[in-house]
Amino acid sequence: MTKENSWFQEAVFYELYVRAYADSSGDGNGDFRGAIEKLDHIKSLGVDCIWIMPMYPSPLKDDGYDVADYYNIHPDYGDLEDFKIFLEESHERGLRVIIDLVMNHTSADHPWFQAARNDPDSPYRDYYVWSDTDQKYSDTRIIFLDTEPSNWTYDEAAGQYFWHRFYSHQPDLNFDNPAVHEEMFKVIRYWMDMGIDGFRADAIPYLYEREGTNCENLPQTHDFLKKVRRLMDEEYPQAVLIAEANQWPEDLIPYFGDNDEFHVCFHFPIMPRLYQALKSGDKTPIVDIWSRTPPIPPGTQWMTFLRNHDELTLEMVTEADRQWMWEQYAPEPRMRLNLGIRRRLAPLLDNDQRKIALAYSLLFTLPGSPILYYGDEIGTLNDDSYLKDKHKANDTRWIHRPRIDWQKAEARHSHGSVEQRIFDGIRKLIAVRKSIPAFSDFNNRELID
């Protein structure tokens, strides 16, 4: 692998939620033209690559992860021309751009699903997973225990149950159907040919189902992902594939393969342990999880983070540790969501610049490629109106996906303010990290001794 093709190993990423970022039109929604105006802000941090959360047409019941059209832009965000200008402006500043690739499921509003449910003879019927009973795959856990009673939902029009690992408005695609593979390859080529630099692939452990298993991490999933990687290597060798898989580190190693699946995998278990260590003053949780993490193949990388668009997940800690984390970081029940915490970084750390600096110093001195969550670099707070208003509280993730009011944000960023010190501190840490390439080398175990 050439240096140019392995750029991601030493990169710092920035997660951008376009809808909440910068509004150029005054309609209350962030858009690509607004984001273009903030590219110099992003660039000034010293980051290398922007990851854009889903920008596809969608009913937005799951903030765009319920895709209704893989080939266009949600009208709130602009249009394809706006996206192309954003891409061009980013590249001119030396910023790469990756986008979300949502392969596991679509929106129930997607034309494929509408055709499937309304016509049993439609070729799209076999694009989804159907059953006459809701008892199949009974060994499979329910991910959203707080909202979904089952992984099956009965559809009156179809007269059958359809399978979904996430919300009941997000039917899973049927990867036993080769036509679904071809559809995903078309989507990949469409956006890669437009000039993006890769994908963050959403929810990849769940692509296949088999009776008698937990329907996660199945061999068939890896077989398909190798096909995706082969396409990328042959046609787009400088692009990156990043796996979002909330799994234990030893279960993630197969997603690297022999460097023939993903280039990068998110390391979810490290994230809650950073907060454990900060609150307890004890590095043991961090050292233990890194010690448990196997070496990775040459040419691959872990991705680390403090916060992202999802709740601060506590799936991979003990029940006792989960209760302790809730007590320490989410004392009010409305601050909790499913098995996690729905709060942004600054409120989690009491809006204390020293605590935030310490958290980032931990992140940026760990091996891997770190990623920043939009707005955390300026101390963005929760949208607490969702905590105080019982009618809004069910809009579960807007709390930690708030819109940035740049006028107010810039007014707060006077010289010497907490927000300005946070921004300057992160910029300095990124510069120091980039001056010491060893920080990116996970297999150098001396870094955690």
Write the H/E string, N to C. Answer: EHHHEHEHEEEHEHEHEHHEEHEEHHEHHH
Spatial strand order of the main sheet: 1-2-3-7-8-9-10-14
Approximate shape: globular
* Portion of residues within helices: 25-40%
Percentage beta strand:
5-15%
Structural class: alpha/beta
Keywords:
globular, eight-stranded parallel barrel, 16 helices, 449 residues, alpha/beta
Describe it.
The chain is of the alpha/beta class and 449 residues long. Helix content is 35%, strand content 12%. It is built from 16 helices and 14 strands. It has helices at residues 18-21, 32-37, 39-44, 80-92, 111-118, 178-194, 219-235, 249-256, 270-280, 284-292, 319-329, 345-348, 353-365, 385-388, 406-412, 418-434; strands at residues 13-16, 49-52, 96-102, 130-131, 152-155, 160-163, 198-202, 240-243, 264-266, 301-305, 312-313, 336-337, 340-341, 369-373. The strands form 3 sheets. Strands 1-2-3-7-8-9-10-14 form an 8-stranded parallel beta barrel. Helix 9 (270-280) runs antiparallel to helix 10 and helix 13 packs parallel to helix 16 (418-434). The chain is globular, with a radius of gyration of 21 Å. The two termini are 29 Å apart. The model is unreliable at 389-394 (pLDDT under 50).
